[in-house]
Amino acid sequence: MTYLWVKAFHLISMVTWFAALFYLPRLFVYHAMAEDEVGRERFKVMERKLYRGIMTPSAVVTIGLGVWLIAMQPFWLQQGWLHVKLLLVAALAGYHLYCGRLLKAFAEDRNPHGHVWYRWFNEAPVIVLIGVILLATLKPWI
């Protein structure tokens, strides 16, 4: 019974994390296009609150519950699908941290990219999401 509760909350926190991972780069798109100081300051606040208040806590809970699930099913560590999934999660964590660097650059008014770059950057988590879902449901290479 505990396993199903942990799995349910793992999925809930993962959905929340991905929602933030999709939304923060979209805010970066609009921030990069903002031409007035009031608008840029508003985006700084929104980005900071999203990153610190939703995105990072969701990431921590998702990863923590994932570790708990693996501890409950240690035989998964011998299955190839989990190794690939963990590699994707590590890449996603790197993406998350890079978003934090971009957030800091925006906060310091030294945005390094244009809005088109952020539009493409915003697509990366979609690829990871597809991979994670397929691996977790199909469990290939068992």
Secondary-structure topology with pairs:
Layout: H1 2-33, H2 37-72, H3 80-107, H4 115-121, H5 124-138
Helix pairs in contact: 1-2, 1-3, 1-4, 2-3, 3-5
Write a concise keyword list for the protein shown above.
mainly alpha, 5 helices
Task: Give your account of this protein's structure.
- Helix content is 83%, strand content 0%.
- Helix 1 (2-33) packs parallel to helix 3 (80-107) and helix 3 (80-107) packs antiparallel against helix 5 (124-138).
- The protein has 142 residues and is mainly α.
- The protein is built from five helices and no strands.
What is the structure about, briefly put?
By secondary structure, the chain is mostly helical. Helix content is 83%, strand content 0%.
Helical stretch count?
5
Unreliable segments of 5+ consecutive residues: none
Task: Give the strand content.
Answer: under 5%
Overall structural domain count: 1
Distance between the termini: 24 Å
Order of helices and strands: HHHHH
**Residue share in helix:** over 70%
Structural class: mainly alpha
C-alpha-based Rg, rounded: 17 Å
Largest sheet: none
Mean pLDDT score, rounded?
Answer: 97
Shape: elongated
Strand segment count: 0
